[in-house]
Amino acid sequence: MKQLVRIISFLVTLILGLIGLATHLVIAESSGKTEKIEKLVEQQRQISKIPGMSLVIVEKGETVYQRNFGYKNVKEKTPVTSSTLFEIGSTTKAFTGLAILRLEKEGNLKRSDSVQKYIPWLKLKYQGEPQTITLNQLLYHSSGIASNSIVQIPESNASNALELNVKTLLNQELNRKPGSTFEYATINYDVLGLVIENVTKQPFDLYIKNQVLKPIGMNDSFVGLHQVQSSMVAQGYKIGFLKEQKYTPPIYRGNIPAGYIISNTTDIAKWMNLQLGYDLNKAFNKQLIKESHHPDRSVEAFNTNSYYASGWEVVKKEAKQYILHEGQNPTYSSFIIMQPDKELGVAILSNMNSSFTTSIGQSVMDIWEGKSVSTNQTDSYQKLDKIATVLLSVLTALGVIFILLLLRTIRKMIRKQRERRALKGNRVLILSIHTLLVVAFLILVILIPKILLGFTWKFIQVWGPVSITGLFYGFITISIIFYVYGVLLILTKKQTASIRKSSSKCNHSSNG
């Protein structure tokens, strides 16, 4: 018996030792990962000029890492915390998509139904022919609505802003036949938001707050800025003149279902755990969550092995499936990526619109999975900002030159070194050509975004770098200065030496 006790005691000691060693190795490995993550995030944050970020990792139902970087408000040096709120951009779409699936489960709608069953007046055409668009096609971005329909979303904080937004589609032709191909159009989810309003007979924001966020336990999250009564919202920024610039964009309340849930990483961790099969409840069972991850394969992949589900992008990489989505608003960006097989999720929120947010989130996932990471990231907004800043510097130099030339011409006119001449003959033709050239240039500057991209300057002013707006006004200003300078040269001429002498003698005699 004593021998048996010794053997059991030895085995227990051995097992405990092995457990301790394994725990030590896991902790050491985890510590190594977190050091890499923190170094990478801070390095990329500095390069990207993003003021503040909040990062969270969940695994097997637990929050295994949560860290905050930088500032909620740069001027006040207020640090980001896990309670700091951010607009989460298009990662909002998964909430709207899940609400649609839940309403179908409850028998309130069918995704195969035409959208006109729920919004009778929404009659859209393709090449002049009326089309039937299903709720599924809206969910999967195969409705045929053009991606540049985002330009038409009206600025509004009115309670009927969602309906006003959807009504802008009545004046827009579909870009392709419904169900034919994928084309990402944010307003698809605003239409679904209006469907939810009409089916539930309550405002979209209240339904999502009470029937989606609260059951998940996301009590510190909000559906639109009008719901927020908190000082925890991070100040939003845009890139401009090579640094962060504070900016407050217009309110687009009609775009809430597609991009304006406001949350923090503590609540987003709960959201990811739900998606990964934890903390399920009566409102959202496992089957419903799985259905929301089911990709639409009725159209071609929009990226390599990438298909769209109900507010999620589903990607196959190296025999693994990832569920992800990025979000971008004028002054915020977010990225959520999950690996269901490992019950692993990463989310990152930031207070600047930057593709660095997505690349950082992807890199964090790679580090946690033990993969190598590339830090050679680029951001289109930064590139545009650099180009605009250089061009504006050149324009400023030209502007100074033209202003000096203009002032010199005016001084000569005051000193009678230049005199007016009659506007006739060639002078009329030259003035007309000068006017036409300047007007044509101004019209080109105003219309070029519309011609090349289908956007307006007003849209670019909201979404683009601050320097782009400065460049636009720079072109306008220098054109006006150049025009005035040219007109003065055309309408005046140098006085001849004899006239100047005669004028000088007359002045001398008068003084005598």
Strand order of the largest sheet: 3-2-1-15-14-13-12-11
Helicity level, as a percent range? Answer: 40-55%
CATH topology of the largest domain: Beta-lactamase
Principal-axes shape call: globular
CATH class of the largest domain: Alpha Beta
Alpha-carbon Rg, integer: 31 Å
Question: In what range is the share of β-strand residues?
Answer: 15-25%
Total domains: 2
Return residue spans where pLDDT drops below 50 for at least 5 consecutive residues.
Answer: 18-28
Derived from helix and strand composition plus strand pairing, the structural class reads: alpha+beta
Corresponding CATH architecture of the largest domain = 3-Layer(aba) Sandwich
Distance linking N and C termini: 140 Å
**Tally of helical segments:** 15
- Secondary structure: number of strands: 17
CATH superfamily of the largest domain: DD-peptidase/beta-lactamase superfamily
How would you state the average pLDDT, rounded?
Answer: 91
- Give a short account of the largest sheet: 8 strands, antiparallel
